Amino acid sequence: MWRTGRWSDEHVELFIGNLLRWGVIVAAFVTAAGGILFLSLHGGSIADYRVFRGQPDSLKSVTGVAQSAFRRNPEALIQFGILLLIATPIARVALSLLAFLKQHDHVYVVVTAIVLGVLLYSLIGV
Questions:
Q1: Is position 76 within any domain?
Q2: pTM > 0.70
Q3: What residue numbers bound the domain in which 14 lies?
Q4: Are 58 and 68 in contact (CB under 8 A)?
Q5: CA distance 16 to 44
Q6: Number of structural domains the chain divides into
Q7: Terminal Cα distance for the chain, rounded
Q8: Does residue 107 lie in a domain region?
Q9: Average pLDDT of 61-90?
Q10: Residue 33 lies in a domain
Q11: How far apart are CA 63 and CA 60, in angstroms?
């Protein structure tokens, strides 16, 4: 399939389907692991709703979440799982763009590039 240079529609659909399936499975696993770790550490704590405590600065950016998640911070693991879930359909659009480029389907290349640009701008932009 990929070695021969042929990217048939069926192969692309199968690959994208597997990407979506595994992206959701990995995101769910990471989020569940963070939730289990959080509950094991803080499950017996009583919530104090009189004082608002926002997220620490390390959990307000993608790089901060990733760094904290690799240090096994439970809150960061949960947020990292959600980021993986958000990244899964974006990866699908990026892979579709590559497939359309390989298939020389110029109309779909333009449309998919616009969609990918809008997705990335909405995440990174103002």
A1: yes
A2: yes
A3: 9-124
A4: yes
A5: 42
A6: 1
A7: 40
A8: yes
A9: 92
A10: yes
A11: 9
